[in-house]
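Input.
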Amino acid sequence: MLTIRKEQIRVFDEMAMKQFIERMVIHVRKHFPEESKSMDGEQLKNHIRDVIPVAKKYGLVSERDICKYINLSMFYGTGFDKKPENDWMARMLMDSSEPNPSIRIRKLYKEVLNRLKEKTE
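Output.
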């Protein structure tokens, strides 16, 4: 029987997080070139590392959901959910009428895209 120690699991978790951050750096550079151009690689990694625990506070745990939250942080800035003009975003992220955090972030993301579309029309 194979036994995996807690230390080994921690190492696997760290490796997975490092790989996720690397993928997010590529993603952000591709989709948010203007917003990320003032950040060097380490600054961008730090931004992503800082945002992940905030996303998790909203119950976001899947890579897809955290990626959406990172996208919002790139577009609206770090701490976007605490800015008074974005109260509506925080309310959507914490909406207790929807128990599934994945659905909440999808609804928020859709609403953001709709609002941006309305501004450009």
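Residues 6-31 form the longest helix (26 residues).
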